[in-house]
Amino acid sequence: MKKTCYYLILFFVLQSCKNKTTENLQNNVNQNHFGTENAEINEIENSQAAVTYTDIFTFESYNDNGDYSFLIAKKGDNTYDFVNDGNPERNLLRGDSCEIQWKVDTIFIAGDGETPEAADWIISIKKSKDGKVSQFRKQYKKEIKYHFINEEYSPEYANEIYLLVEYYIANSKNETIKSSIQNNNQIEYSINNKTVDNKTYEVIEIGQTLEGEFTTVQTIYIDRETQLIYEYNPTNEKLIVFK
Predict the structure, then answer these.
(1) CB 48 within 8 A of CB 106
(2) pTM higher than 0.85 for the full model?
(3) I need a labelling partner for 2 at 20 to 30 A (CA). Which of 21, 54, 125, 179 fits?
């Protein structure tokens, strides 16, 4: 009887040890499997982060008014927004060709629960060719003069308007404007505003001061919201998008 009890106790002890060993082995397998999955995921994420892209774009503008700085560029008819936080230089002018190297990374949308969103982050950028505005500045050595009609604007907004007017002047087909550039005559403009069909425009009168009197040679309208430039046609009183 004592031997029987001894064998029973020994059996249960061995069985318990076996179950414990099996459980430990299973836990180790599960942990190893979980670790492998994490490693695979990290490897995929790292490989995506390591991918870089390079292409030639036409520079449009800088936008430093939000949580992130952006550089806006075009390729053909498509417009691209690049996160530009790592680039302090602001030396490109609209129309310049530039080579951009970028990667896909994450930004967090403020006011939306810091929601993560994929975005194109600039790694490096360099100008590859002067656009017409850069060529204009090299040829026309003067600052374009301007004055306000009804209201003063902040220096930042006045500078935005200046760059848009400068872009128009550099690309204008108006013969008087082209002649003024060629002869290095002083070009000026006035800034007013006007509401047309419930839209507010900056009305720009471009011209020269001759014998103390300002003479307008071209009127353009700038949409405050889109910053599109329109040429004003006085014959039919139409606004024509300037391209």
Answers:
(1) no
(2) no
(3) 21
